[in-house]
Amino acid sequence: MKKVFALDNKTFNDQLLDFIINFKSEGDMFNDGDRNVIKTKAIDGVTVNVKSFRTPNLVNKLVYRFFRKSKAQRSFEYAQYLESNDIGTPKPFGYFENTGILSFEDSYYASAHLQADLTYRELTTDLNYPNHDVILRAFTRFSYQLHQKGINFLDHSPGNTLIELNNGNYKFYLVDLNRMKFGKMDFKTRMKNLSKLTIHESMIKVMSNEYAKVSGEEETKVFNAMWKETQDFQERYHRKKRLKKKLKFWKN
């Protein structure tokens, strides 16, 4: 097993490694998803969150073994990059990979477990959430900060930003980090980056108003671009769902 730790703490690291080795039988289930499993466990007074990435298909076993970094490694390295740029994310503790001579098996990413007050998703499901407008504007400024620092979070979607309220001093933390790009972002790329967040035009109006304030862009231009990218994403998403439904029908 490949083992990479962030902390210089042998006691903690040994217990973390033991958790990884015995992952199937240890820890508390936090999320048992179709693709990945997340468990938590208290280690040396810290609640640790471990994400187990599913075993890839035959092609990706070769890709991850020889040509591309694993999702766990990317998550770990991107978390460290975010930390170095003062962008919130749960503290990374390490990553682990099981490989064979010619293939890749599975991988794990370990970080601190953050018990946030809400995610961006709650803002989309409850438009009357307390201080909804204020939180949404703070989130928009956070997103603009990402763009200014050249951080293109490709999974910038409702469940992937955790929010701490802190009596109005809102803090934002990115999770599910394995898909990112870095570098200068043009206007279209920035607007596309915000396209997966909400279907509500009212929220897009607030976000475009705040984004225009902090970026200096003309508000109508921002709204039109942000709303178009949102609609385009929704069309692609539903088209894909319809296609999957048809394929499932023909299989049966």
Written description of the protein model:
The chain has 252 residues and is α+β, with helices and mostly antiparallel strands. 45% of the residues lie in helices and 23% in strands. It has eight helices and eleven strands. The strands form three sheets. A six-stranded antiparallel beta sheet has the order 1-5-6-4-3-2, sandwiched between helices. Strands 7-9-10 form a three-stranded antiparallel beta sheet. The chain has a two-stranded antiparallel ribbon with strand order 8-11.
Summarize the structure.
The protein is α+β, with helices and mostly antiparallel strands and 252 residues long.
Shape: globular
Q: What is the radius of gyration?
A: 20 Å
> Could you tell me the strand content as a percent range?
15-25%
Determine the N-to-C terminus distance: 41 Å
List the defining traits of the structure above.
252 residues, alpha+beta, six-stranded antiparallel β-sheet
Give the helices and strands, then pairings.
Blueprint: E1 2-5, H1 10-21, E2 28-32, E3 36-43, E4 46-53, H2 58-66, H3 71-84, E5 92-99, E6 104-112, E7 118-119, H4 120-125, H5 132-148, E8 151-153, E9 161-164, E10 171-174, E11 180-182, H6 187-193, H7 201-215, H8 219-251
Antiparallel strand pairs: 1-5, 2-3, 3-4, 4-6, 5-6, 7-9, 8-11, 9-10
